[in-house]
Design brief:
By secondary structure, the chain is an alpha/beta fold. About 35% of the residues lie in helices and about 15% in strands. The strands form 4 sheets. It has a 7-stranded parallel β-sheet with strand order 3-2-1-4-5-6-11, with helices on both faces. Helix 1 links the parallel strand 1 and strand 2. The chain binds nicotinamide-adenine-dinucleotide. Nicotinamide-adenine-dinucleotide binds next to helix 1, helix 4, strand 5 and strand 7.
Length: about 350
């Protein structure tokens, strides 16, 4: 049966892939986004778009109080005009966030206010408006481990940045909302989201871009200078850092599964492919997929970079999640196709 969802940050990279997956299966979706890093064109025409900031408590209350309203004048008027007597939201997916680790170390208070305070206010509003299910985009930046072993959900939490800590504060607020108010919640800790919609409808358009795969692709396409590789003297096979790249459509699929799993109780899942790839392996993959040479140079290590960060996604896999785009070349192929067909991203 069609369900009704609110997706904060649904104009962004990961959120827009979930919105599309929800619409593809016939659900009704409202996106709430201030378009700070997101794009109007990333919101499919079938979704309502409310352009608003999470800090606007009155607006959040109005949206939560009126599921299915068209929010005319804010963007697309889409499906979901249920009006009086409409059922409550079936769930809220919360993607909206600032997400630059480095920036958060220059402006920690901004991150604590924008991410943690706004996130906690959103949880409070959900409780007040009777929302029963909440799915949070959390992060691997909660962990401070440097080991070859895949990181499970119960690994020690020790965020090393204001960004990571802001997500941990929201996770803890969700625990209280669950314990005291019965809000079922899923904390989904992504490792490195990557790739693009295999059907070519969506892709990654961060400005500035900080993620490795689009940076390597742009270096190959000559759209930026040679790529800086931060250190090749780490204790890994080729000396460069290893990260866990998980396809953005696989992440969207994990959200669909998680929101249904909430019928049994709250969940915390780490989401990654479970197979790490080094920076040099990513460069080699882009060269294979594009038949282009990637210009790069080795520079000094960055402070705080762990040698290896790979997820154990055991819990999500037990619930039936299987990444279908686990192969690095598959991930790179979809990202490269998007970049070729959208050289200016969403064009805004
Ligand atoms: N991309 C990754 O690799 C990755 C990894 C781990 C966790 N995450 C988390 O996943 C979520 C989505 O990441 P993304 O890469 O899609 O980011 P993104 O920047 O593309 O999307 C975030 C969206 O939220 C909106 N937004 C931000 N602050 C807002 C506010 N105060 N009010 C309303 N809208 C606001 C932005 O305009 C944007 O559309 C974030 O919470 C991020 O921390 C992402």
């Amino acid at each position: 049966m069609s369900q009704r969802f609110l997706v904060t940050g649904g104009a962004g990279y990961v959120g827009s892939h979930l919105v599309t997956a929800l619409l593809d299966r016939g659900d009704q979706v409202t996106v709430l986004d201030n378009l700070r890093t997101g794009h109007r064109a990333a919101v499919p025409a079938g979704a309502n778009l409310v352009v608003a900031d999470l800090a606007d408590g009155d607006k959040i209350d109005a949206v939560l109080a009126n599921p299915g309203q068209g929010h005319a004048g804010q963007g697309h008027a889409g499906q979901g005009q249920a009006g009086q007597g409409a059922p409550a939201w079936d769930a809220v997916f919360h993607f909206a966030s600032l997400s630059q680790v480095g920036e958060s170390m220059r402006m920690p208070m901004r991150y604590l206010l924008d991410n943690a305070a706004n996130g906690i206010r959103l949880i409070d509003a959900c409780v007040r408006h009777g929302v029963g299910r909440f799915v949070l985009s959390s992060t691997a930046a909660l962990f401070n481990l440097d080991s070859d072993a895949p990181i499970p959900e119960d690994a020690p939490i020790d965020p090393q940045s204001a960004y990571g800590d802001s997500k941990w504060m929201i996770e803890r607020a969700l625990r209280w909302a669950g314990q005291v108010h019965g809000l079922r919640h899923a904390c989904l800790r992504y490792f490195n989201a990557a790739g693009a919609d295999p059907a070519g409808r969506l892709g990654e358009d961060h400005r500035p871009e900080s993620h490795l795969i689009p940076l390597v692709i742009d270096a190959a396409l000559g759209r930026r200078p040679a790529l800086d590789v931060y250190g090749d003297d780490y204790p890994t096979a080729d000396g460069t850092c290893i990260r866990d790249y998980v396809h953005v459509s696989d992440l969207a699929a994990a959200h669909l599964l998680a929101v249904e799993a909430l019928a049994q109780g709250s969940v915390v899942w780490n989401l990654g492919n479970g197979a790490g790839h080094s920076v040099k392996q990513v460069i080699a993959s882009v060269e294979r997929v594009s038949s282009l040479k990637v210009p790069y140079r080795i520079v000094a290590r960055r402070t705080g970079d762990a040698a290896v960060l790979v997820a154990s996604s055991h819990r999500a896999q037990q619930a039936g999640w299987r990444p279908v785009h686990g192969d690095l070349d598959d991930i790179v192929r979809t990202a490269f196709a998007w970049r070729q067909t959208h050289p200016d991203g969403y064009g805004d």
